[in-house]
Amino acid sequence: MCLAVPGKVLGIEERDGTRMASVDFGGVVKEVCLEYLPDLQVGEYAIVHVGFALQRLDEESARRTLELFANLGMLQEEFGDPWEQAAQATQPEAGEVRQ
């Protein structure tokens, strides 16, 4: 699943003519393209989808959304290690016997 997730801009730089940002998504930092929000600044929040900042967001809304996603396990699903997730999916439940 690909979510549109709010994140906080930690730093901005230009790479090959494109504004890029380091964005913190509740402890996970990813690189994000700012071409759709060229005036976004360090410290601001944005909704990010598939590596692009799409919409500016206020801090309170961003924090509530990140908390909700974390409580539902959706941040781990979106940003977690796919190898770890696959290994966990193949582990038997307590009392379950797989053949």
Task: Give a quick summary of the entry.
With 99 residues, this protein is of the alpha+beta class. The chain has helices at 59-71, 74-79, 82-90, and strands spanning 5-15, 18-25, 28-33, 45-49, 52-57.
Protein model, in words:
- With 99 residues, the protein is an alpha+beta fold.
- It has one domain: SH3 type barrels.
- It has 3 helices and 5 strands; from the N terminus they run βββββααα.
- A 5-stranded antiparallel β-sheet has the order 3-2-1-4-5, covered by helices on one side.
- β4 and β5 form a beta hairpin.
- The model has no long low-confidence stretch (mean pLDDT 82).
> What is the C-alpha radius of gyration, as a whole number of Å?
17 Å
Distance between the termini: 30 Å
What is the element string, with H for helices and E for strands? EEEEEHHH
CATH architectural group: Roll
Strand order of the largest sheet: 3-2-1-4-5
Structural class: alpha+beta
What's the total count of β strands? Answer: 5
Helix-strand layout with pairing:
Blueprint: E1 5-15, E2 18-25, E3 28-33, E4 45-49, E5 52-57, H1 59-71, H2 74-79, H3 82-90
Antiparallel strand pairs: 1-2, 1-4, 2-3, 4-5
